[in-house]
């Protein structure tokens, strides 16, 4: 009976350590952060929302400014509509690079090391609620591995001053 209990305890310990090792192998080569170009604004002002993505050394992220029909999944940033703001123009990627893919017979855009997207918004209310979600695809030049990712964002700390 004692022998059975020891084996049971040992099995549980092995499974516990194995689960820790497996969860430690989850890749997350893209780290997202967000900021607003100005902390204090007036109603009617236009500000830039800045999305920054830090990428691990051998990784790149697809931009949003190419046709999704060609194959790679472009980065997509979605804003939840709210009466306290309105989007001004399109989401702009900065410092993209182009690559032609022979297999797809198409050109796509990407960013490596650091990626930045900017979106202008007009502030319409005193307590702007600017939030949403994003999806993206990162790939490694080292081994060709690609990983989809997603997340949510919310811009806080924006003070609307009286006119």
Structure description:
The chain is mostly beta strands and 163 residues long. It has one domain (29-155): Sandwich (Immunoglobulin-like). The protein is 13% helix and 52% strand. The protein has one helix at 2-23, and strands at residues 30-36, 40-42, 46-55, 59-62, 76-79, 85-94, 97-101, 106-112, 114-123, 130-140, 146-155, 159-161. The strands form three sheets. Strands 4, 5, 7, 8, 10 and 11 form a six-stranded antiparallel sheet that branches. It has a four-stranded antiparallel sheet with strand order 1-3-9-6, with no helix packed on it. Strand 10 (130-140) and strand 11 form a beta hairpin. The longest helix has 22 residues, at 2-23.
Task: Summarize the structure in short.
By secondary structure, the protein is mostly beta strands.
**Shape, per Cα inertia axes:** elongated
Tally of alpha and pi helices: 1
What is the H/E order?
Answer: HEEEEEEEEEEEE
In whole angstroms, the N-to-C terminal distance is 80 Å
CATH architecture: Sandwich
Overall structural class, as computed from helix and strand content, comes to mainly beta
Strand content: over 45%
Counting structural domains, the number is 1
Level-1 CATH class name: Mainly Beta
The CATH topology annotation reads as Immunoglobulin-like
- What's the overall average pLDDT, rounded? 87
Helix content: 10-25%
Looking at this structure, what is the CATH superfamily? Thiol:disulfide interchange protein DsbD, N-terminal domain
**Which residues sit in consecutive blocks of at least 5 with pLDDT less than 50?**
19-24
Number of strands: 12
């Amino acid at each position: 009976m004692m022998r059975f209990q020891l084996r049971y305890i040992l099995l549980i310990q092995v499974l516990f350590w194995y689960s820790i090792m497996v969860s430690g192998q989850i890749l997350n080569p893209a780290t997202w952060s967000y900021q607003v170009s100005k902390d204090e604004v007036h109603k009617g002002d236009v500000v830039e929302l800045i999305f920054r993505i830090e990428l691990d050394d051998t990784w790149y992220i697809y931009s949003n400014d190419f046709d999704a029909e060609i194959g790679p999944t472009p980065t997509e940033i979605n804003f939840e509509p709210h009466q306290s703001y309105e989007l001004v123009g399109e989401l702009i990627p900065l410092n993209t690079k182009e690559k032609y893919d022979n297999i797809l017979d198409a050109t796509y855009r990407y960013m490596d090391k650091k990626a930045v997207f900017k979106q202008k918004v007009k502030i319409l209310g005193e307590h702007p609620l600017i939030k949403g979600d994003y999806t993206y695809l990162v790939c490694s030049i080292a081994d060709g591995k690609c990983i989809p990712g997603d997340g949510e964002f919310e811009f806080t700390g924006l003070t609307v001053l009286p006119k």
